[in-house]
Design a protein that fits this description.
The chain has helices at about 5-25, 40-65, 75-95, 100-110, 115-135. By secondary structure, the chain is mainly α. Helix 1 (about 5-25) packs antiparallel against helix 2 (about 40-65), helix 3 runs antiparallel to helix 4 and helix 4 (about 100-110) runs antiparallel to helix 5 (about 115-135).
């Protein structure tokens, strides 16, 4: 029972749940008169099925692992990252890509241990900026 409370199991369960939600959302998209193989959701469904299979295998492997893993070290940081991720997905649809991505990077990098403010600022501006330049 103590294996369920390991950080790795929580991460794998999160990946499985996110993949399940994304897979379920592909069935809510309707395209008139399009066969299943011609639908724009055909290839994403294949990728998401592979995602779900790999996540399920990783959960089983994590539960069967005999090695001692560390428990979740900081629930507060994990909660902050979860809240930042949810807010990011909500805000990105209304505000566009660049500003929410910049704020998300500025919040998540310190959560992951990057403490140098110059590096945080550089990544927060450079990575979303480069993606905007590449794909616009």
């Amino acid at each position: 029972m103590s294996q369920i409370f390991k950080e790795r199991v929580f991460v794998m369960l999160g990946l499985f749940l996110v993949g399940s939600g994304l897979f379920a959302s592909t069935f809510q998209q309707t395209f008139s008169g399009v066969e299943a193989a011609q639908s724009p959701m055909f290839f994403p469904r294949i990728i998401l099925l592979l995602w779900l299979g790999l996540a399920l295998l990783a959960i089983v492997q994590s539960l069967r692992a005999e090695t001692e893993t560390t428990p979740v070290s900081n629930w507060f940081r994990l909660g902050l990252l979860l809240i930042a991720s949810v807010l990011y997905t909500v805000v990105i649809g209304r505000e566009g890509f660049f500003l929410p991505s910049m704020l998300f990077a500025a919040i998540s990098l310190p959560i992951f241990g990057v403490r140098n403010p110059l590096i945080v600022a550089a990544y927060a501006i450079a990575v979303p900026g480069a993606l905007v330049l590449l794909f616009n």
